[in-house]
Write a sequence for this structure.
């Protein structure tokens, strides 16, 4: 396909105090072999050297600055300023392989009935060392309603028509705005996985620090309750309501435990069992024990084993 007929892809990176990783993120976008990219970086009121780092790339991207409003609001700002018919986002600590956008765009071109596509990715640590390989898996909307882990990560692209119909990320969410967005988007059509590893998702202390607050602990419950309050859900989605709320409360119990709120943790466990009596007490106990003993990556692993 001739370059001039390829769709314009708009990528937005929201960043707040991301001076440690943002240069690597930016360079991974600028190194893409796809020829039609609009790149917008939204500095969300950083107080470190983030703006200075990003300004090194002026002329190759668009830098916008705003007062601190949170990741979701910053992403929405970027998308509202964009011109592409295909949209994407990349967190300020994640990385794309050079062919990522070209191959994900081709997936969308090959499947005009798909609303979005995303690549497989590796998990890396703070130093960029690979700690898990190929962690994504095919998107199943019904499964995603129950499973609180969002597999749609760096390198994901969606058609602008999706944003026009359902709106952007919810600004009041801090921990799971991406998962909530893809739950809504999944009601519209197919979301495809490109099985090749084309991106890296970075896990470090900073990007999980939000989990300790009380509001963040309850966020997965809020997302589930709002989703099931919709009046347009298919019958198969409504059928997994109890399981989904049970898992949401179990995640809340882990976050409360991490924040030192033992009473709130036990209350969330009771709510999890009330919604889904099939949750095994042994698995719940092991999850909470691992939560006490483990670091960020081990937490993700233990949640997956249980959920």
């Amino acid at each position: 396909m001739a370059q001039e007929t390829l769709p314009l892809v708009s990528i937005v990176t929201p960043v707040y105090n991301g001076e440690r990783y943002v240069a690597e993120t930016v360079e991974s976008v600028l190194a893409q072999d796809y020829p039609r990219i609009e790149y917008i970086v939204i500095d969300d009121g950083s107080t470190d050297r983030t703006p200075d780092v990003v300004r090194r790339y002026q002329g190759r991207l668009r830098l916008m600055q705003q007062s601190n409003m949170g990741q979701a609001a910053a992403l929405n700002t970027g998308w509202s300023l964009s011109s592409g018919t295909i949209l994407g986002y990349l967190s300020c600590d994640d990385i794309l392989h050079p062919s990522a956008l070209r191959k994900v765009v081709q997936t969308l071109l090959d499947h005009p009935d798909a609303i979005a596509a995303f690549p497989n990715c590796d998990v890396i640590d703070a130093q960029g060392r690979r700690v898990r390989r190929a962690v994504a898996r095919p998107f199943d909307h019904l499964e995603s309603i129950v499973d609180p882990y969002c597999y749609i990560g760096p390198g994901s692209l969606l058609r602008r028509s999706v944003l026009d119909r359902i709106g952007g990320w919810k600004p009041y969410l801090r921990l799971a705005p991406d998962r909530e967005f893809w739950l809504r988007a999944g009601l519209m059509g197919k979301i495809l996985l490109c099985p090749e590893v084309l991106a890296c998702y970075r896990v470090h202390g900073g990007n999980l620090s939000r989990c300790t607050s009380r509001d963040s602990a309850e966020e997965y419950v809020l997302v589930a309750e709002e989703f099931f309050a919709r009046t347009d859900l298919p019958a198969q989605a409504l059928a997994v309501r109890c399981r989904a709320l049970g898992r949401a409360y179990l995640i809340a119990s882990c976050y409360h435990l991490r924040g030192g709120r033992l009473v709130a943790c036990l209350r969330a466990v009771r709510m999890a069992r009330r919604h889904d009596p099939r949750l095994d007490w042994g698995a719940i106990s092991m999850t909470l024990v691992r939560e006490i003993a483990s670091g960020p990556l081990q937490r993700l692993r233990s949640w997956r084993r249980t959920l």
User: Anything to note?
Assistant: The longest strand covers residues 190-202. The longest helix spans residues 241-258. The chain is about 45% helix and 20% strand.
